[in-house]
Amino acid sequence: MAASMASQAVARGLHGASAKYLFLDKFKCAQVSSRRWLNLQEYQSKKLMQESGVTVQRFYVADNPPDALQAAKRLNAKEIVLKAQILAGGRGKGVFNSGLKGGVHLTKDPSVVGELASKMLGYSLTTKQTPKEGVEVKTVMVAEALDITRETYFAILMDRACNGPVMVGSPQGGMDIEEVADKSPELIFKEVIDIFEGVRDDQALRMAANLGFKGPLERQAADQIMRLYDLFLKVDATQVEVNPLGETPEGQVVCFDAKISFDDNAEFRQKAVFAMGDMSESDPTETEAAKWDLKYIGLDGNIACFVNGAGLAMATCDIIDLHGGKPANFLDLGGGVKEKQVYEAFKLLTADPKVEAILVNIFGGIVNCAIIANGITKACRELELKVPLVVRLEGTNVQEAKRILSESGLPIVAANDLDDAAKKAVAAITRK
Predict the structure, then answer these.
(1) Structure confidence by residue, pLDDT tens digits, 191-226
(2) Kindly report the CA angle at 231 between 225 and 234, in degrees rounded to 5?
């Protein structure tokens, strides 16, 4: 059965939220997983790099037009770049609701930076990666603009196949590395890093040469690579991606843009880094779900999907679609769930005005079905559930769970299997 639009949306959401794929060669890709989705603004990533001795453009951050103007004057640069700081790509081609076009502006006149900032700060910027209404810009980065004579790609990431970190590079930077790997796999170079030795000097020099740096620039690039690895270790990163790592006409190797992903298991020792996380641009429901270790992705239908596991989520969305229904969202409990999480999950689902029915589809492997059943009955009573509820449970302690539900006296519709559950959920909507 072909995947429905809903399950494809779930897949895209999971891919964006929990995994980053990088093609290392023609036949293999590495995956870096993260469940907390820590996002840093561009200036925050550059600050971390700067603190590790990595060469970045000189920059200041401002949250009001006068400060942006003063920053431009302090830079005393030949050319200045003003960048709106939001967690979305395509800023350069975005549009503000102030009428200003472009979230990135170049100028040789510092005096116009304040005026440009006044049309950015406090206004919403809409790009290909933001919601239709855009995202409000609260800060701008005022940076020295440098010419780039050549762009390369460089990243350090965790590779399960190698049981540790790997350097990945290409002399073709400034574009999606996946596209380069697909069309020109011979231009993807990798170096496996020994976790005990770290990046050796000969490895860094070889990668610099493969990236196309020549003469003194080769040594300079190698030094930058070694400092990026120091950063990778220092902040407990799962990935440091620099695109582009470029060279300037003046003979300088500069990290012009970077994305850093972090190991959320190291949050306890990276409190300063995680405190920088900007959740203001996240969907409020997703943010609330994350507080309870729940994963939530909103869709545009009217049947809420309460599941455990991404695969089960996509299967549930597909079968609802097959029977003529539309998923309103999916909420993934994950493993090791507690009754409190089940209760909070129901609060999130019932707060969505689009939801006209709830389908619970749980396969209890790690999850104890009795815990789910107790959480469901508690939520139904305390929240005074008003929409139809269809429940399909299988796995650990399922008989006890079914007893709890049947003796609760609540109007819960039991389902024998996933197909039966989807039919009953769609039927419940149809009868309304």
Answers:
(1) 999 999 999 999 999 999 999 999 999 999 999 999
(2) 145
Q: Are 124 and 133 in contact (CB under 8 A)?
A: yes
Please name the residue ranges forming H helices in 54-122.
65-75, 113-118
User: Nearest-CA neighbor of 242 among 159, 180, 167?
Assistant: 167
Structure tokens given for 282 = 């996240």
* Three-state DSSP class for residue 363: strand
184 closest CA partner among 195, 193, 173, 192:
173
Going 387 to 392 to 397 to 402, the CA torsion angle's sign is positive
Q: Which residues contact 160 (CB under 8 A, 6 or more apart)?
A: 30, 31
Choosing from 241, 286, 344, 356, which is the catalytic residue? 241
Is the pTM here over 0.70, yes or no?
no
Token digits of residue 175:
């574009």
Active site residue 241: yes
Residue with tokens 């919403």: 124
Contact 298/283 with Cβ under 8 angstroms?
A: yes
Q: Supply the pLDDT for residue 284.
A: 64
Helices (H), 34-87: 42-51, 65-75
Name the nearest CA neighbour of 405 among 420, 393, 418, 421.
393
Selecting among 42, 43, 151, 153, the annotated active-site residue is 153
